Amino acid sequence: MVINPRALVLFTELETVDLPCKASGEPQPTYIWKKDKRDFNVAGSDDLISTVENEGTLVFKQPKKKDAGTYQCFANNSYGVAMSGIVELRLAFLQPYTNQEPETITVSPGSCLVLPCNKPISYPEAKFTWLLKYSDGD
């Protein structure tokens, strides 16, 4: 039996992220990770990526954009191989709004009004809310 990570894991830079992988078996399984379908050498990476002792959980202490990709865990012992599902590790971000001067729009009562919104780029796609501010004196 292999404990699988979620299919999509979002991260922000500098926030620790775990990709769980743990299998039961006798003899105790060893673990191999693949990133983007290629062998991923945890020992060859910097000290910010490690595995949990006696299991295959992959820990990113301060993930960076370059860590994004698809990952899969393989647990091996003398009786065979068990593999996790593929998990996508993806950077979550929200770019700032661009500064624009407010624009006055005048419409007649009963007319349609379209308010422009220069929404920032984000992943996952941000949800937006409009607020109405009445002018002073109204």
From TrEMBL:
Molecular function as annotated in GO: cell-cell adhesion mediator activity
Keyword vocabulary terms for this entry: Disulfide bond, Immunoglobulin domain
GO biological process: axon guidance; dendrite self-avoidance; homophilic cell adhesion via plasma membrane adhesion molecules
Cellular component, GO, one term: plasma membrane
Domain Ig-like stretches: 1-84, 96-138
InterPro entries xrefs: Ig-like_dom, Ig-like_dom_sf, Ig-like_fold, Ig_sub, Ig_sub2
Keyword Disulfide bond: yes
Protein name: Contactin-2-like
Native source organism of the sequence: Octopus sinensis (East Asian common octopus)
Gene responsible for this protein: LOC115225491
